[in-house]
User: What shape does this take?
Amino acid sequence: MGVPIGLNAWSRAGDFGTEAFSTYWFSAAHAESTYVFCPEPGVSGLTFDLSGSGDGVGLPETRFRFTLDDLTAGQALACLEAPVEADWQGWSTWSRDWCQTCTTDPAHTYAMTLFASADGGDGTRYACLGVDVLPAVPAPGALLLAVLGVVGVGRSRRSLAR
Assistant: This one.
């Protein structure tokens, strides 16, 4: 009777993050979270601040992917994935940080998917991805113009009322 070889893998998905961890030869872990949402009224853009990392021997052993799809319009708005082919140079630990702002329409429904994968090999593999989602803040110049416009309209109304 041989000694059993432990094949360990775990994954976690949720809370705007995914993690995948695997050890020993044929174990594999895949984690995926999909969030379907409509932006709040008045929100015309969302900023996605992503941070991911992994270790292993490159493709396809560890990777993560972020996608944003406009379900109402039936189109993909963003797809970010790491590592890319050029990253692979033997065993490596890698990380990526992205920040992307996407125009959104409160009347549309969107799907945001986070995916992390760690596949087997002769050692430990790990991949994770996390994202913060914030309403897009207009550029300072646009804010200044909006404030000046409101002030100008207010003064015009007061002048006309006299």
Strands lie at 8-14, 17-37, 45-56, 62-70, 75-82, 92-103, 110-135.
